[in-house]
Amino acid sequence: MKRPKPRLKKRLKQRPKRRRLRAKRQTIVMRVDVLTLFPRMFESPLGHSILKRAQDVGLVQIALADIRDFAADSYRKVDDKPYGGGPGMVMMPGPVFDCFEHVQKLSPEKGRVILLTPQGQRFDQKKALALSKEKRLILITGKYEGFDERIRIGLDAEQISIGDYVLNGGELAAMVIIDAVVRLLPGALGDEDSTKDDSFSEGLLEYPQYTRPEIFRDMKVPDILLSGDHAKIAEWRCQQALERTKKWRPDLLGDNKKE
Ligand code: 6GU
Fold first, then answer.
1. Rounded to whole angstroms, how far apart are CA atoms 92 and 194?
2. 162 CB under 6 A from ligand 1?
3. Given the CA of residue 163, which atom of ligand 1 is nearest to it?
4. What are phi and psi of 69, to 5 degrees?
5. Which of 116, 201, 131, 126 is nearest to 162 (CA)?
6. What is the mean pLDDT of the chain?
7. Which domains are delineated in the chain?
8. What is the structure's pLDDT at 97?
């Protein structure tokens, strides 16, 4: 005989809790404004996973401003040939300043102003942590050929790069920064501890992780992780993190020989 289904309330109780999706309303911790020529590039990264949830619960407010809306002419021109000659086009100061001044008035907080450029200081976990303490970030992205120098000077902007290579524009770099910073905001990950053991957060790579099954294609989970001895596990993880850092990223330990 078929067993009757448990009543709805009971069934709901039996379902595993989806802790990570539980949306608890938060007070806004940070506002991020992005000035860009391509606001639509941000739709997908901001519309998924942690970044989406952080906005949905009100932890972070991310606003996009289209620099082209502040162009002075009907062609919506925002860049021009460099004085002195040379290839490529340079972002004109007018539209960026007008866009910036409009954006700054959208919130009373002054904000930390960041220009995304390969000439900037290299972004890393330490910088992400520092930025995560700010109430407001204003990120200015542009074409890789560069900004008219008066933008950096006039807006007193700090310059950040995400690595030693050239991207077509600062948009992807801005998304990388937003992703790395927002996950550090308190409550963004649901589980408060989960950024603590991240790679780089202690200046080391992360220890190796395993999940079920215990044996996969003849590869076994290290016995120590099944031992239940938490002190030993912590010691093993610490040792593993150090070993992998030595092997794969000795530069993090101040040894630049292998870099
Ligand atoms: Cl922030 N912008 C561009 N255009 N290229 C980069 C970068 C930024 N960081 C690394 N490469």
1. 43
2. yes
3. 10
4. -65, -15
5. 116
6. 91
7. 25-182 (3.40.1280.10), 197-253 (1.10.1270.20)
8. 98
Q: Is 163 in the pocket of ligand 1 (CB under 6 A)?
A: yes
Q: What does the pLDDT read at residue 199?
A: 85
Type of residue found at 180 = A
Alpha helices in 147-259 (DSSP H): 149-154, 171-182, 230-248
Q: Which residues are catalytic?
A: 118, 145, 183, 198
Longest CA–CA span in the chain (Å) reads 88
pLDDT single digits (tens) 2-46: 566 666 666 555 655 555 555 667 788 999 999 999 999 999 999
Q: Is 64 a pocket residue for ligand 1 (Cβ < 6 Å)?
A: no
Contact 36, 103 (CB under 8 A): no
Higher-confidence residue: 106 or 145? 106
177 within 8 A of 131, measured Cβ to Cβ: yes
Q: How far is the CA of 176 from the centre of ligand 1 (A)?
A: 11
Cis peptide before 213 (omega within 30 of 0): yes
Which of 37, 91, 115, 117 to probe ligand 1 with, by most ligand atoms within 8 A of CB? Answer: 117
pTM: 0.88
Say how far apart CA 66 and CA 95 lie, in whole Å.
10
CA–centroid distance, residue 122 to ligand 1 (Å): 10
CB atoms inside a 10 Å sphere around CB 123: 20
Instruction: Check whether 235 has a pLDDT greater than 90.
Output: yes
Q: How far is CA 111 from CA 31, 94, 172, 203, in A?
A: 9, 20, 21, 28
pLDDT, one tens digit per residue, over 206-226 is 999 999 999 999 999 999 999
